[in-house]
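Figure-free illustration: sequence to structure, shown twice.
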Amino acid sequence: MVEKIKELIDDLRIYLNIDGGDIEFIKYEDNILYVKLTGNCAHCMLQDQTLNENILQAIKEEVPEIKEIINVEL
């Protein structure tokens, strides 16, 4: 399942790259996906919208077990 999630993130990465941002897989645990937004996405005011309405929804189409996505600020 983790490899599938990583592949999906890689497919979505291009859309963030267009705006100077990026996304990094951190871990998948207890049906929660942990990622790290970087670049312009790291401090964007629309970060929550991007994560929940775009990235999470796209990934859930392929992996419906995911219940939540959390941006980890390292």
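We now fold a second protein in the same way, so the two outputs can be compared directly.
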Amino acid sequence: MIKKIDLIYADECYEIMGIAFDVFKKLGFGHKENIYQKALATNFKERNFKFKEQLRYNLKYKDETLGVYILDFLLFDKIVLKIKQKDFISEKDIDQVYRYLRATHLKLGIILTFTKKGACFKRIVNLK
């Protein structure tokens, strides 16, 4: 018997990735990350997504700010989206998004990388 796995925010992820594939189809590979980010933001606006771009998040401990994380995107007030332009997703990238999730107490992050072969993604889940 095959067990169905429920993905966190599956519908939202489907929409996000559709936009990412569309951006890659139109722009191709080789642009800087900020170019892809601007193209994604344009599409998010056109589709009336709720999003924040380059969101600064202050990490605090006992009312002291310890540092600042800058999220490429916060979508629907619940999904962190990190943009990369390279052919692989590294452990460092995964760790970075997981730190964002722990700091913001959010459940899902997506690393979106624009590679020579296309737009690829990895979902990072914060189970805590």
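Summary for the second example: DSSP finds three helices and five strands in the chain.
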